[in-house]
Write a structure and sequence with these properties.
The structure is a single chain. This protein has 2 domains: 5-64; 76-130, 434 Repressor (Amino-terminal Domain). Helices cover 62% and strands 0% of the residues. With 145 residues, the chain is mainly alpha-helical. The two termini are 32 Å apart. It has helices at 5-27, 36-64, 79-89, 94-101, 105-113, 121-130.
């Protein structure tokens, strides 16, 4: 998941490097020391990695362009990523969220880098409020088994 503009720029650059590498591989003759299956596996691996990175870039672009305003929470474990997606969808930077929380930008960066692992429940509630998020009227908790 891309969490900020810096990661977005880095990931876009990685996509371009993979595109260049794939184009270079396509223009090269297979070295005789490398089996055709290995050569094809290498090409497919590069293609797959590039597609994964493109998906990350596209998801970030959709969020940051406001094309995806609703952030659906499938379960409690998804809350950290949902908070990050909600911040991006709101057009808010990590610095902007930090200002609203009254903390340094580095603190929000740490929270997001660790997916809020070190944040207290009280802090998470403040993040939810700062982002202007709301929950449906009722949340139903169901036990497994």
């Amino acid at each position: 998941m891309i969490k900020n503009e810096k990661q977005y720029r880095i990931t876009k650059a990685q996509v371009r490097r993979f595109q260049d590498a794939i184009a270079e591989l396509a223009g090269q003759a297979r070295p005789s020391a490398i089996s055709p299956r290995l050569w094809e596996a290498q090409r497919q691996a590069a293609q797959s990695q590039m597609e994964e990175l493109r998906d990350l870039v596209e998801a970030y672009e959709q969020l940051s362009a406001g094309r995806s305003k609703d952030v659906v929470l499938e379960g409690v474990a998804d809350l950290p990523k949902a908070l990050i997606r909600a911040r991006i969808a709101a057009g808010m930077t990590q610095e902007g969220l930090a200002r609203r929380l009254g903390v340094k930008a580095q603190q929000v960066q740490r929270y997001e880098a660790t997916e809020y692992e070190s944040a207290s429940f009280a802090r998470i509630l403040k993040v939810v409020q700062a982002l202007g998020l709301r929950m449906p009227k009722a949340v139903r908790l169901v036990r497994n088994g």
